[in-house]
Specification:
alpha/beta; Metallo-beta-lactamase, Chain A; 7-stranded mixed beta sheet; 14 strands; 24% helix; 25% strand; globular; binds zinc ion
Amino acid sequence: MKIRYLGTAAAEGAPALFCTCAQCMQARATGGRDIRSRSQTLLNDDLIIDFSADAYWHGLRYGIEYYNIHDYLITHVHSDHYYPMDLDNVDRPYAKNPEDWPPFIVHGSIDDENEFMRVVRRRPEHLVFHAMDAYKTYEIGRYRVTPLRARHGSENPFHYVIEDGEKTLLYLHDGGEPFDETFECFRKKGFRFDVISYDFTEGLMESIDYYGHMCMGQNKALRARLQTEGFLNEGCISVANHFSHGGKCINWEESHELYEKEGFIMTYDGCEVEV
Ligand SMILES: [Zn+2]
Ligand SMILES: [Zn+2]
Ligand SMILES: [Zn+2]
């Protein structure tokens, strides 16, 4: 399984649009891996996870042929994960596609279709919405996908378990700590993870006093729980991703070793993790 992180920032990007904080100013000066665009991930070469406000730019930067990828898995409605206005370009008059072209399918919760209709107010011919329920397993292309209930942004945001037949990914952006019912689902379905993409919106903080994002302290505790309860395959890779400019130590150049020390691979835009 190849996981390509196209965008690794939270909602405001890093450096953040209008921000002059020390971390943002440093990122502007350093450039390179300290420049983080909004969240998006490509799994192998045929499943897109999230379609953020930077999806267009990612397509150009990494040569991603959206016109050949038909499955789009959405976590939630925030613009760093989902940008309906650009998805609206899927068909005529904005795109010339062959008559027999398969539809482009947006897989997510009912919230994603509602948000699309609220913003775009038309239903493109070539775009299909596939509303899923949490804790059921769906076949999407060659993947088995299980949405997990999260609490973040709208009524029904999702985290995901994605199996490609060989490896299993747990994708936790964003949405706070998993509920107990999520652990129950892992037990029932017998999941064991080979790679986990942990939410690091708050970076190296030990704790935070609100629900909806994660930090180092929480992720270490979560990983320990997953280990204790037997959900990690041997050698399970821990990835730290989805950084906010307001989080502690999110610039790659100065911080990636601190993440490595704790056993997490710190992402940067364009990096690839293979399991
Ligand atoms: Zn986000
Ligand atoms: Zn800032
Ligand atoms: Zn969000």
